């Protein structure tokens, strides 16, 4: 399956930051893997215009489960599509923590986003306390069960495994820990959807210096990158590592 290097800019970036996209396009005019940037919503339409006709895609970082209505500050899936998005990240641990998003809320968003035609990148991952208690695989299996609603379209699904304790900390799991979780995810998704074609991304402190090693692991089909996606030079090096791993 084609690898996916996805960048999540989180709450970073203004109009000036679009120069990083121009630099990335100059470095990777025709990437041999899928490349996605999810900027803040304020930049989505401008970034979509900037990457038009290139191999680079843009996506949202979240959407509301409702199609429209009285939800101040929220954005619907159709609005993301209208702004040029083809993907949306759902259930990121920062949304789960900052906005108390439950698995059921994430599941409702998956239904709405897929109905609007978006590829959905659903995030799962354990906290450090859960890992220390030996509950990692149970937590992740339960997040997958709860966050993927009946009727989920596997062809519009990507899963990102992001250990909460590895996000933005510079710490990463061991290769064995990543493989253990990705193998469990692969089995669970194969059992439920009857396909091994769902891309599994690893996320959490991916950077140019560790990307090649992570991409060489079985059942790792790419990465969801936070901090290192903000600079074209760093994200470009991660894209190159994924291209080389194919
Ligand atoms: O969505 C991205 C992840 O939360 C990873 O963030 P990070 O690469 O800054 O650790």
UniProtKB/TrEMBL annotation:
<dbReference type="InterPro" id="IPR000652">
    <property type="entry name" value="Triosephosphate_isomerase"/>
</dbReference>
<dbReference type="InterPro" id="IPR022896">
    <property type="entry name" value="TrioseP_Isoase_bac/euk"/>
</dbReference>
<dbReference type="GO" id="GO:0005829">
    <property type="term" value="C:cytosol"/>
</dbReference>
<dbReference type="GO" id="GO:0019563">
    <property type="term" value="P:glycerol catabolic process"/>
</dbReference>
<comment type="subunit">
    <text>Homodimer.</text>
</comment>
<dbReference type="GO" id="GO:0006096">
    <property type="term" value="P:glycolytic process"/>
</dbReference>
<feature type="active site" description="Electrophile">
    <location>
        <position position="92"/>
    </location>
</feature>
<feature type="binding site">
    <location>
        <position position="168"/>
    </location>
    <ligand>
        <name>substrate</name>
    </ligand>
</feature>
<dbReference type="Pfam" id="PF00121">
    <property type="entry name" value="TIM"/>
</dbReference>
<feature type="binding site">
    <location>
        <begin position="8"/>
        <end position="10"/>
    </location>
    <ligand>
        <name>substrate</name>
    </ligand>
</feature>
<keyword id="KW-0963">Cytoplasm</keyword>
<feature type="active site" description="Proton acceptor">
    <location>
        <position position="162"/>
    </location>
</feature>
<feature type="binding site">
    <location>
        <position position="205"/>
    </location>
    <ligand>
        <name>substrate</name>
    </ligand>
</feature>
<comment type="pathway">
    <text>Carbohydrate metabolism; erythritol degradation.</text>
</comment>
<keyword id="KW-0324">Glycolysis</keyword>
<dbReference type="InterPro" id="IPR020861">
    <property type="entry name" value="Triosephosphate_isomerase_AS"/>
</dbReference>
<dbReference type="GO" id="GO:0004807">
    <property type="term" value="F:triose-phosphate isomerase activity"/>
</dbReference>
<comment type="similarity">
    <text>Belongs to the triosephosphate isomerase family.</text>
</comment>
<keyword id="KW-0312">Gluconeogenesis</keyword>
<protein>
    <recommendedName>
        <fullName>Triosephosphate isomerase</fullName>
        <ecNumber>5.3.1.1</ecNumber>
    </recommendedName>
</protein>
<dbReference type="GO" id="GO:0006094">
    <property type="term" value="P:gluconeogenesis"/>
</dbReference>
<dbReference type="InterPro" id="IPR013785">
    <property type="entry name" value="Aldolase_TIM"/>
</dbReference>
<feature type="binding site">
    <location>
        <begin position="226"/>
        <end position="227"/>
    </location>
    <ligand>
        <name>substrate</name>
    </ligand>
</feature>
<comment type="pathway">
    <text>Carbohydrate biosynthesis; gluconeogenesis.</text>
</comment>
<keyword id="KW-0413">Isomerase</keyword>
<dbReference type="GO" id="GO:0046166">
    <property type="term" value="P:glyceraldehyde-3-phosphate biosynthetic process"/>
</dbReference>
<dbReference type="InterPro" id="IPR035990">
    <property type="entry name" value="TIM_sf"/>
</dbReference>
<comment type="function">
    <text>Involved in the gluconeogenesis. Catalyzes stereospecifically the conversion of dihydroxyacetone phosphate (DHAP) to D-glyceraldehyde-3-phosphate (G3P).</text>
</comment>
């Amino acid at each position: 399956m084609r690898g996916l290097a996805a960048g999540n800019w989180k709450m970073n970036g203004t109009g000036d930051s679009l120069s990083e996209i121009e630099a990335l396009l100059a470095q990777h005019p025709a990437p041999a893997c899928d490349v996605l940037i999810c900027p803040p919503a304020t930049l989505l339409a401008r970034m979509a215009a900037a990457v038009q006709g290139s191999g680079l895609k843009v996506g949202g970082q979240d959407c509301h489960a409702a199609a429209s209505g009285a939800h101040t500050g929220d954005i619907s899936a159709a609005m993301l599509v209208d702004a040029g998005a083809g993907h949306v990240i759902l259930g990121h641990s920062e949304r789960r923590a900052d906005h108390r998003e439950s698995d059921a809320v994430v599941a409702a968003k998956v239904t709405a986003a897929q109905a609007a035609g978006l590829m959905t990148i659903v995030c799962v991952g354990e906290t450090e306390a859960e890992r220390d208690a030996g509950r990692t695989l149970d937590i992740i299996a339960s997040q997958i069960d709860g966050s993927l609603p009946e009727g989920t379209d596997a062809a519009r699904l990507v899963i990102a495994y992001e250990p909460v304790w590895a996000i933005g900390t510079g710490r990463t799991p061991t290769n064995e820990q990543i493989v253990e979780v990705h193998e469990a995810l692969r089995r669970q998704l194969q059992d439920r959807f009857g396909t091994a074609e769902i891309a599994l991304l690893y996320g959490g402190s991916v950077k140019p210096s560790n990307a090649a090693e992570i991409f060489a692991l079985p059942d790792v089909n790419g990465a969801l990158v936070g901090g290192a996606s903000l600079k074209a030079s760093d994200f470009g090096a991660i894209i190159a590592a994924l291209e080389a791993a194919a």
